[in-house]
Amino acid sequence: MLSTMQDEQLSLATLLRYAATVHAESTVSTWTGDAVRTQTYAEIGQDAARLANALRKMGIGYGDRVATFMWNNNEHMIVYAAVPAMGAVLHALNIRLFPEQLVFVANHAEDQVVIVDATLLPLFSQYLPRLTTVRHVIIVDGDASALTAPEGVQVHSYTELLDAEADTFDFPVVDERAAAGMCYTSGTTGDPKGVVYSHRSNWLHASQVCASNGMGFTDADTVLAIVPLFHANAWGIPYAAMMSGANLLMPERFLQPEPLLEMMAAVRPSFAAAVPTIWGGVLARLAEQPQDISHLRTCVVGGAAVPPSMMRAFEEHHGVKLLHAWGMTETSPLGSVAHAPAASTGERAWTYRYTQGQFPAGVQARLIGDDGDVAPNDGKSMGELEVRGPWITGSYYSPTGDVPDADKFHDGWLRTGDVGTISADGYLTLVDRSKDVIKSGGEWISSVDLENAVIAHSAVAEAAVIGIADPKWDERPLVAVVLAEGATAHPEELREFLTAQFAKWQLPEYWTFIAEVPKTSVGKFDKKRLRAQHAQGELNVIELT
Ligand code: AMP
């Protein structure tokens, strides 16, 4: 028996219409260094229509890829709104990718148009001659003469294009399964892999972001989106903001702790989202230059494990709640969010909040143990996390129709490569990436647990742990420490600090002090580079006896 419900498509055009009318007065603002420039959602809707008209005149139609090479700003949000709504496919390029990877993903996705911030032109112009499918470049906040284009590529000024167009467009309601956007994984090994989101997956994901067990956006919020729009859709914030009427604050290129804090003092956002390395920098800056940031009701942190000491410091010293979440480019990205159950309080609540969180109804999860069987959700049994659901990718994008990386999927589940436990009440605790976990004498040592413990020491600003070859134990942990400004510490003292939490055999004997942990294009610890630095003898390793 079929239902009597209307088969209305979950198309992003309807979301754009909704935001521009029902939440017409909510705003999107971009920080300019000392002030904000602001548009209402009604104005964003008008500019989205102008852009869609201009793109249509360039011949962009259903399924054509329109890329961005941009900071988080109003114009980027307008592209987010316009491109899927007109039936084309948004591809936000990661401006920090290595050149080879950037050229690979733009050609692989067959991007036809690239919209570029003028401040990024010096970088983009190096890639452009190698982008084989691009026919149009649109420059935001700069004129077309700023770029010498290869033959066959037309260059336009964004402002001039939009000024010439009408502020209405008949956005079509497309099949909800059609492609709306794509992101490539920022993996540090092999070619990046393409994930294609549908209108339906983006819509359902946005509802989950808005839900109280997601990020709980309301129209009273001002959401500071520090996570880039090219990193897993900025964690779904743009469409969730359109759905809830939350105001958006975009930091543009002002991403260092000092300007971020200046921006916060001026605009007083209620919500913010960024990877732990950003929050670590903000915390260090606040220690030097105190500032009231209690206007932030919540900061969502994910992309890498958040040290419990960082969560405590934000809450206890600054009255700000860090909300830990787990996800991947492949999961749109919201996979799990660590709200404590309503009934738990005090220290018990913290133990829930330190985890990677609870899966929402839309995400099914299971662990596959070393024996290949499903491990029980008992909070103890470990395995590789596999997930499935309506906003989880079922394959990687292939322009040729072959099935790339089929080994990343297992009976319709996505293999995440993350290893951990799940409790009976559905909370995920990640132990490590399967490739980062350290196997010492046949036993596992979690690099993440060691990092979290070392960083809790007051002399430590950052700590990254990798496994290094050991003739007796196969592998042993090497701890790379970045000391806090002006601090000193001896490895003996740091190891002593760990004795309360770790078994004797887990305590690391190899230590090195470095100026900075190398980071990936999305600001995570780049352990591959750290391993290479060690292999090339660039690290001065101290061995404790
Ligand atoms: P990306 O696709 O770049 O977002 O990377 C996804 C990967 O980041 C996951 O598979 C995890 O290994 C890691 N990750 C994301 N969130 C967390 C978290 N809260 N704790 C630990 N690792 C995380």
Molecular structure report:
By secondary structure, the protein is α/β, with parallel strands linked by helices. It has a domain at about 435-545: GMP Synthetase, Chain A, domain 3 (2-Layer Sandwich). It has 15 helices and 28 strands. An eight-stranded mixed β-sheet has the order 2-1-11-10-12-13-14-15. α1 crosses α8, α7 crosses α8 (about 235-245) and α9 crosses α10. The longest helix has 17 residues, at about 40-55. The chain is globular, with a radius of gyration of 23 Å. It starts with 11 loop residues before the first helix and ends with a strand. Bound molecules: adenosine monophosphate. The site of adenosine monophosphate (AMP) has 21 residues, from β14, β21 and β22.
